[in-house]
Amino acid sequence: MNNIDIKSTNPVGGKSKNFIYEIIDEDLKTNKWGGNVHTRFPPEPNGYLHIGHAKSICLNYGIARDYNGKFNLRFDDTNPEKEEQEYVDSIIEDVKWLGGDFEDRILYGSDYFEQMYLWAVDLIKKGKAYVCDLNADEIRQSRGTLTEPGKESPYRNRTIEENLELFERMHKGEFPNGSKTLRAKIDMSSPNINLRDPIMYRIVHEEHHRQGNDWCIYPTYDWAHGNEDSIEGITHSICTLEFENHRPLYDWFLDQLGVHHPQQIEFARLNLSYTVMSKRRLLQLVKEGFVDGWDDPRMPTISGYRRRGYTPESIRNFAEIIGVAKRDALTDIALLEYAIRDDLNKRANRVMAVLKPLKVVITNYDSEEELEAVNNPEDPDAGTRKIPFSRELFIEQSDFMENPPKGFYRLVPGGEVRLRYAYIIKCEEVIKNDNGDVIELRCTYDPETKSGAGSSNKKVKGVIHWVSAKNCFDAEVRLYDRLFTVENPGADEDWLGKLNPNSLEVISNAKLEPSLKNSKPLDKFQFERMGYFCVDFKYTTNEKLVFNRTVTLKDSWKK
RNA sequence: UGCCCCGUGGUGUAAUUGGCAACACGUCUGACUCUGGAUCAGGAGUUCAAGGUUCGAGUCCUUGCGGGGCAGCCA
């Protein structure tokens, strides 16, 4: 795939590396893995990927890229009750879109079920695993607590032959769900609870999205995950902090088996302010209809950001900016917004669109003309375009104030502003309806102030955007605000109560300049002075364009 | 109150491994500007605490305090 960013983002040889790069540098120096670097991204297909996964993908793929290693996409599909093909498909699409290059290696943990079964038999033969008849409740009770050791299962000392036979019968489907498990025989009094004879296999008579009905016993994550990494020859198994306590268990399994033993390294998962980041909660938002699907532009999912107008570059850059460490953090959403503004500023063409229109009549203008506008001041190659100007215009309601506070330098009664790329106009008369609402402005223009003409020295502080009433067209524009009203909703037991009721505002009759007419889904623009917008691919039709506001422009005007 | 991990500006990370605490975002000020954008210049703001080792500690040691994780046949 592309490697355009290698130079700019490659920290190898640079001065600032995260602690994982330090470890890999050291491994390379000691030739621990024969010079190889092989990472992977191992999602469970039980939901859509979110921005936290993006951090992990960028980390893992970035390492493979920077060290000329390999990067696998592997589905950790060991639980048929929660996994679906839809999720597999979305994950592949999202990883590709982000730029994680797994080449042809789309792998599945479930493809290793046979090997894992053989290894389990191996452990039984070594006297390191046994079939246990305790039910879930009994196992929980005999596990002990954080401060008390557990009790050994009465089935712990079955003979190897008996265990082999029982495990084989589990495999054949002779026992009902939950009636038996295969457990590792480690230490019921270990201070690390993960080592208290953890379960390796459970009986689940359920169709697997990939393996069909071939299996009715499924490996637990603890048993499967390290094995999958080992089978694929992964050198550095990078995962999040909560698996730190499990590392001794993975080490134990791999050492008992005597197979390739990757090094696990844990880092802190991403938390973003004003949103939630657990698949369980995101699933609930989707299932209970609080949002419009996994790709709702308010969702912190990769598909949500894509639909909202984020670029893969901006998300990759965000991952660089936030770095990688081991301490829990709550990242300010402003860092993400900076990343997308920074990217779109350079690449999005400028256009004019009036979201909440206020009619303006230029009483001393009676003609029509086309004015030249710059498409992108940051990019000379973007060229220019013509925009129609006429007697009747729309401007933004918020660009006129009858009783302005000090510091307001847009249009006021008797005041002047420049119409972007056009003329300076003066507000002569304010027309109101019976309710006292301003419904129209009567203005005059100064023909000497035509943009680019240079025939007037008149200076005004304010410049506002506008569209020609007879040439513009209507479109729907969706404005998004943060999904939650509190900084860290995930920490709140009543997190659903913290949903922002105003996170979506739909404007059905925004007025857009005619050049926008032929926009295609996912096209990105800056609506001058309003923000960056992207054509929605879900609700846009041949008859109606729908725009999503990706992010506002920075606004330094206070109050 | 068992085990494990982590404490650096408001936020996220750095600190050549013991040598003047820096970068980005945010924030504030100014310049420029036909986007109150961008750009440019500048400012404010940081090592959880106490001991110890050392000429010298964000870094090493001890203790304390604070935060997080673990008692699914989830991952």
Distance between the termini: 47 Å
Question: Which structural class should the secondary elements be placed in?
Answer: alpha/beta
Question: How does the major sheet shape up?
Answer: 7 strands, mixed
Uncertain segments of ≥5 residues (pLDDT<50)? Answer: 1-14
How much is the average pLDDT? 95
According to DSSP, the number of beta strands is 25
Total of DSSP H or I helical runs spanning 4+ residues: 13
State the shape. elongated
Beta-strand proportion:
15-25%
Using the CA coordinates, give the radius of gyration.
30 Å
Question: Roughly what percent helix?
Answer: 25-40%
Spatial strand arrangement across the major sheet: 10-23-24-25-21-22-11
Question: Could you outline the blueprint of secondary structure elements for this entry?
Answer:
Elements: H1 6-9, H2 19-29, E1 38-41, H3 51-66, E2 70-75, H4 85-98, E3 106-108, H5 113-125, E4 129-132, H6 136-142, H7 160-172, E5 181-184, E6 199-203, E7 217-219, H8 221-231, E8 236-240, H9 247-257, E9 263-267, H10 279-287, H11 302-308, H12 312-322, H13 333-347, E10 349-351, E11 353-354, E12 357-362, E13 368-374, E14 384-390, E15 392-396, E16 416-419, E17 424-432, E18 438-446, E19 463-464, E20 466-468, E21 473-480, E22 504-512, E23 524-527, E24 531-535, E25 546-551
Parallel strand pairs: 1-2, 2-3, 8-9, 10-23, 12-18, 16-19, 21-25
Antiparallel strand pairs: 4-5, 5-6, 6-7, 11-22, 12-15, 13-14, 15-20, 16-17, 17-18, 21-22, 23-24, 24-25
The structure holds one RNA strand of 75 nucleotides.
